[in-house]
Amino acid sequence: MSIRKLGLSQIQGSLVALDHCEGVSNEEMVQIQLKDGRRRSGRVVQIQGDKAIIQVFEGTDEFSKTDTKTKFLGHPMELGVSKEILGRIFNGLGEPIDDLGPVFVKNYEDVNGRPLNPISRQYPRHYINTGISAIDGLNTLIRGQKLPIFSGFGLPHDQLAIQIVRQAHLTGEDADKFCIVFGAMGVKKDVADIFQKAFEETGVMEKVCMYLNLADDPILERMMTPRVALTAAEYLAFEEHQNVLVILTDMTSYCEAVREFSSTLGEIPSRKGYPGYLYSDLASLYERAGIIQGGKGSVTQIPILTMPNDDITHPVPDLTGYITEGQIVLDRDLFMNGIQPPIGILSSLSRLMKDGIGEGYTRKDHQSVANQLFASYSKVQEARSLASVIGEDELSETDQLYMKFGRQVEEVFIGQKGDDRSIIETLDLAWALLAILPKEALDRLDDDLIKEYYHPQRAQNVIDLARKGVV
């Protein structure tokens, strides 16, 4: 049953307060009518006794304490969904902004998500091929996983997101049941246009659903954007049986909106001014990834966040790392050296990788060759440290081989410059790079694998083709 009220007791910024609001619930949607008949929407964000605090989506300009009519709708914010949302572009509240008219609505879903019993979760197994060797080969993305990308201001995380959307696909029987939900928060108009144009020009827009919150949009819309995007993803996954990849950028903009909103409410700040509940707030978003036992769909998340001053201990990446299952870290030094995408493989990690690769998933040598590539590349850093002291010419022959190996890994394996590689091409390239090193240096590989895949005589040809974009 809806409740109607006349007048307001307080107006402060985007917040309004009403007294004597018995029976009102937190998160309840509200419709507000101005004196001239125009309507605005909002939601209850706090209840203090019988007082309701409402945040108005469109702001409180021209509001009157005496003539404003408020109607409590009796339900939380809901998103109208159907399979027709694919190929469409919406604002952060789920309203179409692509001039293609309204979407046929099959269901209305609560944007706060469905409570998911942990016992009903199925352990993630199968991998998603992004076509990016540094991810597929060394930090494999698994269906149902939440794997964030840690970036910094000025680093090309937007280009990486576009590349993932353009290239990501599944293998196996359900390869055609794959779609992407893309949520952008606090982006500039020109960046939003770049996303849209890139998806349309590469022909992937028909499998993409976009939710765009621009930098000049209200912060309340920014706070709702990831919830709206994840609600759409849950519907596509659990009702339409799609395997959904959700890309959310930039989670730091979302967290700053939460901080601003918390300050407006007068809440006591915690670390760097963020509210103390930021951890649980982020968890309420990230934990919406997963697979339900007996279901045919999945929700996989790649949240992208920018680290202020490249500080990985900042509250946003710090808390995100606690909740998610690894991270892909963009390296500024690689970026300054022209490596694209500049993924720092030693600081990146996919905790679920081991359970979705190997025989039956990718190839039997995947885990072993990834371990060897990690171990060998870590020795490159030792050789570089030594070279900075005594000079590269004074290094031993083995250390000089490691220096060459490190350059090739960065230029050819990590640096793809937009190329799309299959998992087999990625693994073959890894073996070709390891062939730069002597066989006795491959201490993470057993003899059978070395005999089958270690072919120094063919290695340079594979590397040359990879450098040209053809593996």
UniProtKB/TrEMBL annotation:
ATP synthase A/B type C-terminal domain segment(s): 355-454
Residue span, ATPase F1/V1/A1 complex alpha/beta subunit nucleotide-binding domain: 131-350
TM helices/strands, residue ranges: none
GO biological process: proton motive force-driven plasma membrane ATP synthesis
Signal sequence, renumbered to the chain: none
InterPro entries: ATP-synt_VA_C, ATPase_F1/V1/A1_a/bsu_N, ATPase_F1/V1/A1_a/bsu_nucl-bd, P-loop_NTPase, V-ATPase_su_B/beta
Superkingdom field: Bacteria
Keyword Transport recorded: yes
Key words of the record: ATP synthesis, Hydrogen ion transport, Ion transport, Transport
Record's function text: Produces ATP from ADP in the presence of a proton gradient across the membrane. The V-type beta chain is a regulatory subunit.
Family: Belongs to the ATPase alpha/beta chains family.
Designated name of the protein: V-type ATP synthase beta chain
Organism: Bulleidia extructa W1219
